[in-house]
Predict the structure.
Amino acid sequence: MAVTVHCLGVFRELGDSFTVEAPMQSVADLRAACDAYLTAVGRHDLVSVLKRSVFASDDLVLRDSDVEIPNAVSVLPPVAGG
Amino acid sequence: MSVLVERNGAGWHCGLVEGPCPVVGLDAQVSDPAHGAIAQFLGVVRNHNEGLAATAVDYDVHESLAIQSLAELCEELCGRYPVRLFMQHSKGWVAVGEASVVIAASSAHRKDALAAVSEAIDLLKVRVPIWKREIAPDDSHRWLDGHSLRSE
């Protein structure tokens, strides 16, 4: 399965989006695929941010246990509005 | 300034705007002849943070989730306090001295309006998907850390 991950916040340092492709049964698998991608591109700093990030569709924050994975998601690092 | 998206409910209004938030006329957004108190909060970009100089903050926003989160926050606070509530947050570039967030609440007596405004900014900072890219005088930048939305 291929998933386009739209970047927000500090993840924008990777560009507007990146794509991960791997067998995925749940959002936890998507997280693992993103972790592998960040490691492969040498962004170990973002690996640690990813651990504190969530994935979201246009209108819903996803949980790692969710089994429905949209073809496109956003990755939301820790928020800092105000 | 242009309004990107906004929502209304019973006694509340929230929105996201491009650039700095307007600060004039904020009281009129929540005025009510039955209310004797109006409390306001303006979050303004300052010229320093954590010992470093800053000239602006560039706000990144997940628009659809942010407006949904702001609307839920307004609903929650208007359910907890007898207030009229107005909240607006910036997306994009906001220079030092300009407002990035404005909140106003009115109530019959001051305690409810003050409490609602205080709680609104506290909750906004930890719930709404917005991020700060702080700009330094030499045009370098850094993304500021924040509060994780992950609960698992």
About this structure: Residues 63-80 of chain B form the longest helix (18 residues). The interface with chain A takes residues 43, 59-60, 62, 64-66, 68, 89, 100-101, 121, 124-132, 143-150, 152 of chain B (CB under 8 Å). Chain B has a mean pLDDT of 97.
